[in-house]
Amino acid sequence: MSGVRLLVGTSKGAFVLTADGSRRSWQIEGPSFGGWGVYHLAGAPSEPSRLYASLSNGWFGQQVQRSDDGGRTWSAIGNRFDYEGDPGVHQHYDGTPRPWSFTRVWHLEPSATDPDTVYAGVEDAALFRSRDGGLGWEELSGLRRHGSGESWAPGAGGMCLHTVVVDPSRPSRIFAAISAAGVFRSDDSGTTWAPVNRGLSSTTIPDPDADVGHCVHRIAMHPSRPEVLYMQKHWDVMRSDDAGGSWREVSGNLPSDFGFPIGVHSHEPETVYVVPIKSDSEHYPPEGKLRVYRSRTGGDEWEPLTDGLPQQHCYVNVLREAMSLDTLEPCGVYFGTTGGTVFASADSGESWSALATDLPSVLSVEAQTLA
Amino acid sequence: MIRVVLPSQLSTLARCDREVHLELAGTPSVCQLLDALEAAHPVLVGAIRDARSGQRRAFVRYFACERDLSHDPPDTTLPEAVLGGTEPFVVLGAIAGG
Questions:
Q1: Predicted pLDDT of residue B95
Q2: What pLDDT is stored for residue B6 in this prediction?
Q3: Measured between CB atoms, which of A33, A61, A82 is closest to B47?
């Protein structure tokens, strides 16, 4: 029988929520790794019981763990993320040079076909890959060294490589997104890279149309349309129809085009979800109303989805890694808030319910659809 | 027997009790004690000391016998009461919020 397993990373541990295909009743297990910030948990599509977890802690550093039984038990795996060669410097917040220094793994992206191959996006921004189930990690240094690395600067959360998207029809094509550098694409399995930010405009950098320097918050792709990418930028929701070659704004009638996550409906490549957030400094929903916005036209025209979501006095945020979709019919949509609530919709966003409340601040949500 | 008290985050990580007992010959130093701790619980490599430099992580402290040993040279011999097991060697996170 089909089912869903939600992997929820929080500021103080990991939780696993499971339901059968009806998605009416959920079991909550956890926390695992109590006291550790769990930046991301990800399952291997080709072997769903294989999970990877990235733990981080201000006192005790960074850990990567692996489960081979769907999250019941975990083991430490390789935790050496050594930049290739002398990593040199990048820009600090104040524009001064700062040596590249590893802090943590923000994002884990297991291969679609091989459970032992997994990409790790790290802070300070770089992309690593393991081909042995996470025991050892090698940097794909062509990204950091492609030419603009010295000009990269951190966003407020740090200089992180937070998004890795692999084209399922052409696995040698990889997209990586960095705050605050932008989107980069490799067409040769990560050996060489180029920025793909044409069409982005950011008033937060000296040259708003620069090739590099944009604070991209998240990109998303539908597997059936790998040339189409959607982006939630620091400001602006964007779309590319040519694999990042050019971007156009599709913010349309959103109440705020600032936000963090963006997701694509599993069966409708033109149906997109965002969570508008007020900014620059507030980072909570406009009007105190938590609204997911859905476009069924690939952007530009957006409708608020509010049934079951708090519509007054709500001042939480939804972080970039904290939205995910299952592949059941109808498509399930999930997100977690910094207030510790995990919301779910089993009808493509028409109605919502809280699966868990009062968890630690939610950092990441990943939905695994189980056969 | 030497008693080492770990912070909860590290005992969670190592899946061990908060107090760990280690048998070391002779009069080991702080560094040798931590080497033995990491050998017994490899997951702690990098969590107390930087895995590359071996330096104590900035927000980690070592206390024993009502003294802060954090800034003593790593090859300093452990206090006699720690060697004898009457006092624990305490690894803790500095009070810094969170």
A1: 78
A2: 97
A3: A61
The answer on pLDDT for A322 being more than 50 is yes
Q: What secondary structure does DSSP assign to A158-226, as a single string?
A: BSEEEEEEE-TT-TT-EEEEEETTEEEEESSTTSS-EE--TT---TTSSSTT-SS---EEEEEE-TT-T
| Mean pLDDT value of segment B10-19 | 96
- So what's the ipTM on this one? 0.90
A58 CB within 8 Å of a chain B CB:
yes
Residue A26 has pLDDT above 50, yes or no: yes
Of B12, B42, B57, nearest to A61 by CB-CB distance is B57
Domain definitions of chain A by residue range: 35-332
Share of chain A above pLDDT 90, in %: 96
- The predicted structure's pLDDT at residue A2: 86
pLDDT tens per residue across span A252-291: 999 999 999 999 999 999 999 999 999 988 999 999 999 9
The contacts of residue A173 (CB under 8 Å, 6+ apart) are A166, A167, A185, A186, A187, A226, A243
Q: pTM of the prediction?
A: 0.96
Q: Which of A56, A59, A66, A79 to mutate to test the interface with B (most CBs of B within 10 A)?
A: A59
What per-residue confidence (pLDDT) applies to B97? 52
In A, residues 201-220, which contact B (CB 8 Å cutoff)? none
Put simply, the answer to whether B9 touches A36 (Cβ < 8 Å) is: yes
| Residue numbers in B near A55 (CB within 8 A) | 13
Full set of structural domains in chain B with CATH = 2-93 (3.10.20.30)
- Is B12 in Cβ contact with A60 (below 8 Å)? no
DSSP single-letter state for residue A91: E
Best to test chain A binding among B12, B15, B41, B95 (most A CBs inside 10 Å): B12
Q: Which residues 63-122 on chain A approach chain B with CB closer than 8 angstroms?
A: 63, 76, 79-80, 82
The proportion of chain B whose per-residue pLDDT surpasses 70, expressed as a percent, equals 97
Number of H helices, E strands in chain A: 0, 30
The number of residues making up chain A comes to 371
Q: What share of chain B is helix, strand, coil (3-state, %, to 5)?
A: 25, 25, 50
Say if domain A35-332 classifies as CATH 3.40.470.10: no
Output the furthest CA–CA distance in chain A (Å, rounded).
56
Q: Which pLDDT score, from 0 to 100, does residue B98 have?
A: 47
Query: Among partner residues B46, B52, B57, which is closest to A59 by beta-carbon distance?
Result: B57
Residue A204 pLDDT more than 90?
no
- Non-local CB neighbours of A196 within 8 Å, separated by 6+ positions: A175, A182, A183, A184, A185, A240, A243, A244, A245
Count of CB contacts below 8 A, A vs B? 49
